[in-house]
Every structure is written in structure tokens, then in C-alpha cells.
Design a protein that fits this description.
Largest sheet: none
Helix content: 40-55%
């Protein structure tokens, strides 16, 4: 039997009472909209992550995490067919 997925806030609240290790705490994974726009442009221009890291003046690991997010955002999503699409042959 599959366990129901818990909301992220439920997982966090359960961790409050535990000794927690925060990975890469010294890095900053927050990005301004302008930085993300620049990153998108640099990626489309074919620049390497190392080059982008220098231009954005960010740690390479921070840029790598943004790259993971960028890849996930660009992944083609399957179009859900609804009943009308199925009937009309779309």
C-alpha cells in the first residue's frame, strides 16, 4: 500500500525537533528575476556553466543548482487530453 504524499510543510514541522544538517548552507540558492533572465540568455547562447558563473559572479555550485531547475522547467510536458479533445480527434 502506497503511503500518501505529505505536504512539504508537514515534513518540515516533523524535523523541527531533530538535529538537522543543512547541506550547502554557505551557498545562496536564491535568484533575482533579472539573474534568471540573464542565465536563460546565456544558456541559449551556448555558454558553459563556468562562464555563466563568472558573469553572474556566483559560485559554480549555485549556478549548477539553477541549471537543474532550468532543465526541469524546459522539460516538455505531456499534454493532457480532455474528453472534448478525444471526441474531436485533437
Amino acid at each position: 500500500m502506497a503511503m500518501p504524499k505529505k505536504a512539504p510543510y508537514e515534513l518540515v514541522s516533523k524535523r523541527k525537533n531533530r538535529d538537522v544538517y543543512i547541506a550547502c548552507e554557505e551557498l545562496d540558492f536564491t535568484w533575482s528575476r533579472e539573474e534568471v533572465k540573464r542565465f536563460d540568455k546565456y544558456m541559449k547562447d551556448g555558454m558553459t556553466l563556468e562562464e555563466i558563473s563568472g558573469l553572474l559572479e556566483r559560485h559554480l555550485d549555485e549556478v549548477r543548482i539553477l541549471h537543474i531547475d532550468w532543465c526541469r522547467r524546459r522539460r516538455p510536458r505531456k499534454k493532457r487530453r480532455n474528453l472534448i479533445d478525444a471526441i474531436c480527434g485533437n
